[in-house]
């Protein structure tokens, strides 16, 4: 016999579930009406500024017991499912399925978007520039391994904008079909993941050879078809490829994060908590870089990243990539960039986008 109190509590939950379902469908119907209005006016269906506003308001209202992160995830999925009713968005990401880039794309767009793996960072830029994909997701830097310079190089070749950023923690595991360490004869890993687990591997698997592959997901795919192969990959990859844990959290440094860019043909409006990315080339003379950066200091604008890359057009010339807080539409940013331009051969605005919040 079911306890009477338990029965009543379950009945209450059942009634709440029915009400949640009714409200979700009511919300979806209104969203479809909004989509029809946007279509008639030629407006974009996807509005990251609006999405951020919705989630921020909900988080402020949250009193628990669900954590803010759980509420954020739930509403991200609701927004993703709603957008899928309005427009099927194709999102290109650095594949194959199960990479950290794939995980970042899902975290940003929700699981109801249409995800398409690409075989290279270059292919993601091409897909977005040609309009084959609405957005693309590419890695830009890791807190331990530094900048993904190839991604920076692509901004010199393709006409795309940065429309968002995602930062996710990188946790690495040793995975195999059996989960039994004694059956492992070789390990597959992406070079960056291998570097992040070097000390653990030397201590725990000193006699097992490690082979480089194109991604952690490819390592997982190989382990899926050969019981003697172990992969250094994510828990996400283990779920996709049906692998078991040999050892968990084998990364040498636990505060390990990777930042990703969302690229598109345009960038969103102001949210009040934004970041801007630019690239510029300088005249070859003493003090050129100092002069170009000084206006940011004078305006009290925080530079969050600066990186240089060879221009590849003329030897010994460099392109500088800079991230700073603020939006290109901010009056102070407009004034500052006008001063910076005086010292640049060329200055290109790569995008302004909502600053990622953990």
From TrEMBL:
Its main location: cytoplasm. The record marks 258 as: Essential for prephenate dehydratase activity. Residues 1-90 form the Chorismate mutase domain. It is found in: Cytoplasm. It catalyses: prephenate + H(+) = 3-phenylpyruvate + CO2 + H2O; chorismate = prephenate. Keywords: Amino-acid biosynthesis, Aromatic amino acid biosynthesis, Cytoplasm, Isomerase, Lyase, Multifunctional enzyme, Phenylalanine biosynthesis. PROSITE patterns: ACT, CHORISMATE_MUT_2, PREPHENATE_DEHYDR_2, PREPHENATE_DEHYDR_3. Residues 90-265 form the Prephenate dehydratase domain. GO terms for cellular component: cytoplasm. One of its GO terms (molecular function) is chorismate mutase activity. Pathway: Metabolic intermediate biosynthesis; prephenate biosynthesis; prephenate from chorismate: step 1/1; Amino-acid biosynthesis; L-phenylalanine biosynthesis; phenylpyruvate from prephenate: step 1/1. Catalyzes the Claisen rearrangement of chorismate to prephenate and the decarboxylation/dehydration of prephenate to phenylpyruvate. NCBIfam families: CM_P2, PRK11898.1. This is Bifunctional chorismate mutase/prephenate dehydratase. It comes from Thermodesulfovibrio aggregans.
């Amino acid at each position: 016999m079911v306890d009477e109190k338990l029965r009543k509590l379950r009945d209450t939950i059942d009634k709440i579930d029915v009400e949640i379902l009714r409200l979700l469908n009511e919300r979806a119907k209104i969203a479809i009406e909004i989509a029809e209005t946007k279509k008639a006016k030629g407006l974009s269906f996807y509005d990251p500024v609006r999405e951020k506003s919705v989630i921020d308001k909900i988080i402020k209202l949250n009193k628990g017991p669900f954590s803010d992160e759980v509420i954020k995830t739930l509403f991200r999925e609701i927004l993703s499912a709603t957008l899928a009713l309005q427009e099927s968005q194709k999102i290109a990401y650095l594949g194959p399925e199960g990479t950290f880039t794939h995980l970042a794309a899902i975290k940003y767009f929700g699981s109801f978007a249409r995800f398409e793996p690409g075989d290279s960072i270059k292919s993601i830029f091409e897909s977005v520039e040609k309009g084959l994909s609405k957005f693309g997701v590419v890695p830009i830097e890791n807190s331990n391994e530094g900048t993904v310079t190839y991604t920076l190089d692509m901004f010199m070749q393709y006409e795309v904008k940065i429309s968002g950023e995602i930062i996710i923690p990188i946790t690495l595991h040793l995975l195999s079909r059996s989960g039994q360490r004694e059956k492992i004869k070789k390990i597959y890993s992406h070079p960056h993941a291998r570097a992040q687990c070097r000390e653990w591997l030397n201590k725990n698997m000193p006699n097992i050879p490690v082979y480089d592959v194109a991604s952690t997901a490819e390592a997982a795919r190989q382990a899926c078809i050969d019981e003697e192969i172990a992969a250094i990959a994510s828990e996400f990859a283990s779920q996709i490829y049906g692998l078991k844990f040999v050892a968990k959290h084998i990364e040498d440094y636990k505060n390990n994060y990777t930042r990703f860019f969302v690229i598109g043909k345009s960038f969103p409006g102001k949210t009040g908590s934004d970041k801007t990315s630019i690239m510029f080339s300088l005249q070859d003379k003493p003090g050129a870089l100092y002069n170009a950066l000084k206006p940011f200091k004078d305006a009290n604008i925080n530079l969050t990243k600066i990186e240089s890359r060879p221009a590849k057009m003329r030897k010994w010339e460099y392109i500088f990539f800079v991230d700073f807080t603020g939006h290109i539409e901010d009056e102070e940013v407009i004034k500052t960039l006008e001063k910076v331009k005086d010292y640049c051969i060329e200055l290109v605005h790569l995008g302004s986008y909502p600053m990622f919040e953990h």
